[in-house]
Design goal:
Blueprint (H helix, E strand, L loop, with lengths): L1 E4 L3 H23 L2 E5 L6 H8 L8 E5 L1 E3 L9 H8 L9 E2 L9 H12 L7 E4 L17 H5 L6 E4 L8 E4 L1 H5 L4 E6 H11 L10 H4 L2 E6 L1
Parallel strand pairs: 1-10, 2-3, 2-6, 3-5, 6-9, 9-10
Antiparallel strand pairs: 4-8, 7-8
Helix pairs in contact: 1-2
The protein binds 6-phosphogluconic acid.
């Protein structure tokens, strides 16, 4: 794991957005296409704002979430709605947003169709992850019903996930799909998350799911 500490959040957001853009540009130059997988939640908004204004060959960039809450886009809990309002706009308006939600009562009903949509965009070129104070990442929560399945090296691309801390059912990329990424960044802010990261390094992934990605990740932190 590489740990980068920044003097303030603003600098971190700008610098990380810049790293992500240049990594995507490398893939676009080399392969003519790239994929960017991002978290929802409250932290990454400023990175999305910056990226949406960057000049890239966006029509050849596919964008998808690490995980989605099983709510329609009209919900203020929808990560897809966050992406549409902060990332898939401006210059990035032409990017291809690959869905992790489709209207249905349960994620199980749509899981295969959603996984079929994601599969052609793997391996991920650039993966950005968040982390909760409980050391979850994506929707890999400690104590979640299918965490063991999602940690397995033979896990499918996507799994439904339910956990007390998750509020609603979720759909999440699994550990092997996430670990296949060519570049992995973890974005965290504040002293509580820094302490949680330190703790995660001493625990197995069953207790600290972020641990399953840390050996491959660059962690970006600012107070
Ligand atoms: O849908 C989600 O909730 C996210 O994808 C999740 O994994 C998030 O990255 C962490 O919960 C951190 O969230 P905050 O940035 O809001 O602390």
């Amino acid at each position: 794991m590489e740990f980068r500490e920044y003097p303030d959040r603003e600098l971190m957001f700008l610098s990380l957005a810049n790293d992500i853009a240049s990594q995507l540009a490398d893939f676009l130059r080399r392969d003519g296409r790239a994929s960017l997988c991002v978290p929802g939640g409250t932290t990454p908004g400023p990175i999305f704002d910056t990226l949406s204004g960057v000049d890239l060959d966006w029509p050849n960039v596919s964008v998808f979430l690490n995980d989605e809450r099983w709510v329609p886009e009209t919900s203020d809990r929808s990560n897809t709605a966050l992406l549409r309002s902060r990332l898939i706009r401006g210059k990035a308006n032409q990017a291809c947003l690959v869905p992790l939600y489709a209207p249905a009562q349960t994620p199980e009903e749509m899981l295969d169709a959603l996984a079929d949509g994601i599969r052609p965009h793997l391996p991920i070129s650039v993966l950005l992850l968040g982390m909760g104070n409980d050391m979850h990442t994506a929707s890999l929560f400690p104590g979640a019903d299918r965490l063991t399945d999602a940690l397995s090296s033979s896990a499918p691309i996507l799994l439904p996930m339910r956990a007390e801390a998750a509020v609603e059912p979720r759909v999440t990329l699994t550990v092997p799909a996430l670990r296949s990424a060519m570049n992995i960044h973890v974005l965290i802010t504040g002293p509580e998350k820094r302490a949680a990261l330190e703790r995660a390094q001493t625990l197995p992934p069953e207790e600290a799911p972020i641990r399953a990605l840390l050996d491959l990740a660059t962690v970006h932190w600012a107070e």
